[in-house]
TrEMBL record:
Keywords: Coiled coil. GO terms for cellular component: transcription factor TFIIH holo complex. Residues 154-204 form the MAT1 C-terminal CAK anchor domain. The keyword Secreted does not apply. Residues 32-149 form the MAT1 centre domain. It comes from the Eukaryota. InterPro entries: MAT1_CAK-anch, MAT1_centre, Znf_RING/FYVE/PHD. The lineage of its organism: Eukaryota, Metazoa, Ecdysozoa, Nematoda, Chromadorea. This is Uncharacterized protein. GO terms for biological process: DNA repair; regulation of transcription by RNA polymerase II. Pfam families: CAK-anch_MAT1, MAT1. It comes from Caenorhabditis remanei (Caenorhabditis vulgaris).
Length: 206
């Protein structure tokens, strides 16, 4: 009997996977095609995550550069205005401080709005989950099961019981049950009873 091929990594074999294809990895160890496909998918996902991380970093760098450039431009405008304008420096600086404060307040207000929206969304989902109704399963109780032994009509000699089968030596002509068969509920006496039943049924019919 040939040995069933099995993948040492995923434990799949020819019995569970009829299309099992064994391969060799870069280290020379056996590897099935499913693991090779899984490795290829993981490599593709890792490359995609790295590419997204690079794109995110690039976008954040561009945003910082634009913010710094805007800050430098605003600073130059203020310096030019302080140099060329007849308005007092305190007035110009006070105006810029007010703009900065207004900008910070707007950003803070936007963050508060975002938090409130998220909180309202969570509360809405929570209320929907609490009000969700499930269909109740109505179980109709029927009559309780009552076991009745099967009556076998044998047109022949009566069947011996289990103790008689063992004492009369019938089991000497029956192959002993293996441990796995015994674990499944099969015994040698059961096989002997079936053979005796097949031999005696309708024996007196003619």
């Amino acid at each position: 009997m040939s040995k069933i091929r099995e993948c040492k990594k995923c434990k799949s074999n020819e019995y569970t996977n009829k299309q099992l294809v064994m391969m060799i990895n870069e280290c020379g160890h056996p590897l099935c095609k499913l693991d090779d496909d899984q490795k290829w998918i993981e490599d593709q996902l890792r490359d995609e995550r790295q590419m997204k991380a690079r794109m995110t970093e690039h976008m954040e760098t561009d945003a910082r550069d634009k913010e710094n450039a805007t800050a430098v431009t605003d600073t130059r405008k203020i310096m030019d205005e302080l140099r060329d304008s007849n308005v007092a420096a305190e007035v110009i600086l006070d105006r810029e401080r007010k703009k900065q404060i207004e900008k910070e307040l707007e950003e803070k207000e936007e963050q508060e709005k975002r938090k409130r929206r998220n909180k309202e969304m969570l509360q809405t989902r929570k209320r929907a989950a609490e009000n969700m109704s499930f269909n109740t399963v109505i179980r109709i109780a029927g009559r309780a099961y009552l076991h009745q032994p099967l009556e076998l009509v044998i047109n022949g000699p009566p069947m011996p019981n289990a103790s008689q089968i063992e004492s009369m030596g019938y089991l000497a002509h029956i192959r002993n049950a293996t441990p796995d068969l015994i674990a499944g509920g099969y015994t040698s006496a059961l096989g002997c009873s079936r053979a005796l039943f097949e031999a005696r049924i309708d024996l007196f019919a003619f």
